[in-house]
Amino acid sequence: MQRLLQDLRYGARTLARNKAFTAIAVLTLALGIGANTAIFSVVNAVLLQPLPYKDPGKVVFLWTTMISQGVPISGSAAPDFREWRTRNRVFSDMAAYSYDYLNLSLPGEEPLRLQGADVSPELFSLLGVNPILGRTFLPEEEQWGLHRVVLLSYSLWQTRFGGEKNILGRNLRVGGQDYAIVGVMPKGMPFFDDLPRTDLWVPLSYAPKDEMNTRGNHYLSVVARLKPGVTIERAAVEMSAVAKQIERQFPENKGLGAKVVAVREQLVGDVRPALLILLGAVAFVLLIACVNIANLMLARATARQQEFAVRAAMGAGRGRMLAQLLLESLPIAIFGGVSGVTLASWGIKFLESLIPSDLPRFNPIAINTGVLVFSAAISLLTTLFLALAPALFASKGDIQETLREGGRGGQEHRGSGQLRGLFVVSEIAMAVLLLAGAGLLIKTFGALRHADPGFAADQVLTMRMELSPETDFPNGHQDAAIQFYRDLSERVDALPGVRGSGITTTLPLGFGMGWGKNLDVQGHAPPTSLDNVPIVRFQLSTPGYLPAIAARLRDGRFFSLDDSQTAQGAAIINETLARQFFPNENPIGKSIRMFPPTALLPPEARKPETWPAWRTVVGVIADMKDQAINRPAFPTVYAPYAQYHNEGWGGTIFAVRTTGDPLAASGMVRDQIHALLPNEPVAEIASMEQLLARSLSRARFSMLLLSIFAGLALTLAAVGIYGVMAYAVAQRTREIGVRLALGAQPRDVLGMVLLGGGKLAGFGIVLGLVGALILNRLLRNQLYGVSAHDPLTYIGVALLLGVVGLAACYLPARRATRVDPLVALRYE
C-alpha cells in the first residue's frame, strides 16, 4: 500500500509539472467520454432500461397477418380479439386498445380536442399499472350503456383540474356525452407509443350494429401477458393454430393469421439500428481521442528513457512499470471522466432539441446509475489503454545503451516510432469510416429533402377537427356534416390570401387516418379465394382538398360539388393503383368497388342491401407518399365525403392553401370554423412544411449527430498527424541540420517531411476506405437515393482527409526548413 501511495504521489507530481500535457489529455478525453455518455444515455433510456410495466419481458403484442394479400402485420378486428381471448391457452391476460381523438367540454372554457384511447378493462391490470386515485375499468363497463366512465392522465388532472382530490364521480362532457371520472392514472405513465401523450381513457365498447365491431375492420392493437413458462415461440405456434380454427369457423377470415411480437421489439425495433450505429460511431471518436493521448504518453515515455532504464537497472520489472504508468494515467482518466459526464449533462439538453418527436421514450433521458457505471467503465478502460503502449515501450528498451546515452535526452526508439505511426494510421482510418458514413447520411438527407412527395407542401395550412354527431349534428348528422364541409370551404375560400381549401381523412406522409379495403374491379376475373382479394388504401376528401395540396392530375378530373350524395359514385385513383390494376387500359370510366367479389363471400354475407355501390373512376393523380418520403406509395382510392355514409365523417383534417405564410392565416380559418360550430375544438395547427420536416426528423437526427462525430474525428486525426510530425521533426533536428549543412535545399526537407506524413495519411485513408466499404453495409436501411458504396462519397472523403493530412504536416515541415544548421549540430 505504501508503494502504491508513493507511486500515486509521484505520478501526480509528474502530471502537475506538465500542465499543458495534462490539460490537453483531460480535455481530449472529456470530449470523447462526454459524447459517448450522452449517446449512451439515449440508448439506455430507449433500448436498455426496462419498460415501466410489470414484468415487461412477459408482455407481447398480438397482430393479424394477411400474408397472401401482402400485409405482413395489421391491427385486429374486435370479434377476432374476443375469440383470441377466449380460445388461447398461453396468455394469462389479453387486452385491446385503439387511439381516438376526443372532444372535452369544460364549463367556461373553450372545448379541447384531446388524444384519448379506447381500452378493454383488462389492460391496466395486465400492465401492472394502478391509478393514484380511484379505480380502473370494471369488466361490465365493456358493455354499451355502461361504458360512460373515464380515466384522466396525471397531466390533464393537474392542468385542467388543479389536482383536485375530490374529483372522483364528477361528470365530464366527452364527445357530447356525460362520462363519470372513476380514476386518475400515475404521473408520467407511458402508454405504449402514445405520441402525442394520451390524456384520457374510456372503455372499449360498441353500440348495437356498430360497423367497427365487425370482422372486416382490423384496427385494434392487442396486447397479452404470457403465462409462466410460456415462450414467445410457443405462443406464436398456439395463436397460429387458434387463427386456423377461427378461419374454419368464419370463412371471411380466410388467410388471416396471427403474429406474436415482444413488446420492446414492437415499440423500438425500427429505431434500434440507428441508435446502435450512433453508439458505434461515438465509440470511434473516443478511440481516436485515446489514440491521440496514447501518442502523447508515448512521446513522454521516449523523453523518460533514462528514468525507465534506471528503474529497470534497479530491479523494476514490466509489471512494476505498468503499475506506475497506470497510476499516472488514472488521474487523467478520472478527471476526463468527470469532465465528460459534465459535458454529457449539457449534451443531453442539446440532444433533446434534436431527438425526433416519434422516438419512443418510456424512460427519461438522464445521467442515472446505469449511465454513470458506463462512464466509469470506459474511464477505466481508457486508463489501461493509455498506460499499455508506454509500458510496453519502456520495458523493451536496451538498458545499457540507454544508460550510456547519459544526459543526451531521449532518442526515439525505432519501435516507438512505428507504434506512433500505427496510431496515426488507425485514427485516420477511423476518421474515414465516420466521414464516409456521415457523407452517405448527408446525401440521404439531401435526397429526402428533394424527393418528390407528389404534392406541393409550401403555403399549406393544416388543422384537425373531431366532429361529434350527438352535439354538432344531432339530427341527420351525415347530411349536416357534408353541408358543414361545403359551407366551411366556401367561407374560407372567400378569405383574403386563401387560394383553396378542402377536408380529408388522411394527409400524406402518415398524418391522419386511413383504411385498408378490399378492391373489386368490374370486368376483371376475380381471385380464386377470399384471401387473395387485393387490399388498397382508401380515404375520403371534399372537392377542394386535392387541388389545395396541389396534387397532380394525370388524367380525368378532380371531384366537384356534383359528386353529391345522390350522384353516381365517383373515385380517383393514384398511379400505382392504375399501373397495378389497369396496366394496358385507360382506367377512366372503369368501375370499382371497395368490397370483395361477392361470389367469394360466404352465403350468410350475400346480402345485396349491405354491399357498397360501384364507383366510376373519374381521375388519376400522381402518387403521393403515404407513410414516409422514402417509402413507395400504396395503391390508393380517393372517394368523395358526400358519397360515403359508413365511417370517416367525424375525424377530419382541414387543408388550406394560402398566398403567404400559412400559419398567419390560422386565426381567420379558426374563426370561420367557430362561426359555423362555436364549440368545435381545433387542434394540431401546422403548416404542411412543418409536417414534412417532422417526417424527416429521424433522418436529420442521425445525419447531424454522425456529422458532428465525423467532424470531431477529423479534428482529432489532424491533431494526431500534426503531433506525430512535430515530434518527428524535433527528434530529427540534428539530422535535418546535417542535411542542410551538406547542401540540402529547404524544399528537399519540406518534401521529406511531407512525404513521411503523406505516407501515414495514405495508409490510413486506404485502410479506412476498405473498412468503410465493409461496415457501411450496416447503413443500407438508413439510406435513400444513394448506394452504400457511392464512389463520389468515398472519393470526396479520401480527398478531404488527404488535404487535412497534408495541412497538418505542413506546419512541422515548414519549421524543419527553418532549422539553423549550426544550432542543429549542437542539438542533443
Description:
By secondary structure, the protein is α+β, with helices and mostly antiparallel strands. Helices cover 48% and strands 17% of the residues. Strand 1 (59-66) and strand 2 form a beta hairpin. The longest helix is centred in the middle third of the chain and has 37 residues, at 318-354. The protein is elongated and about 105 Å long.
List keywords for this structure.
828 residues; alpha+beta; eight-stranded mixed sheet
Described by the principal axes of the CA atoms, the overall outline is elongated
Largest sheet: 8 strands, mixed
How many beta-strand elements? 25
**Range of strand content:** 15-25%
Structural class: alpha+beta
Spans of 5+ residues with little confidence (pLDDT < 50)? 406-411
**Rg from C-alpha positions?**
34 Å
Estimated helix fraction:
40-55%
Which helices and strands appear, and what pairs or packs with what?
Layout: H1 2-17, H2 19-48, E1 59-66, E2 71-74, H3 78-87, E3 91-105, E4 112-119, H4 123-127, E5 133-134, E6 149-152, H5 154-161, E7 171-174, E8 177-184, E9 200-203, E10 221-226, H6 232-249, E11 257-262, H7 263-268, H8 272-303, H9 305-313, H10 318-354, H11 369-396, H12 399-404, H13 414-450, E12 460-466, H14 477-493, E13 498-504, E14 506-507, E15 511-512, E16 515-518, E17 520-521, E18 535-541, H15 545-548, E19 553-556, E20 570-574, H16 575-581, E21 591-593, E22 615-621, E23 636-640, E24 651-658, H17 666-676, E25 682-687, H18 688-695, H19 697-731, H20 733-741, H21 746-775, H22 791-817, H23 821-825
Parallel strand pairs: 4-9, 6-8, 18-23, 20-22
Antiparallel strand pairs: 1-2, 1-10, 1-11, 3-4, 3-7, 3-10, 5-8, 6-9, 7-8, 12-24, 12-25, 13-24, 14-15, 16-18, 17-21, 19-22, 20-23, 21-22
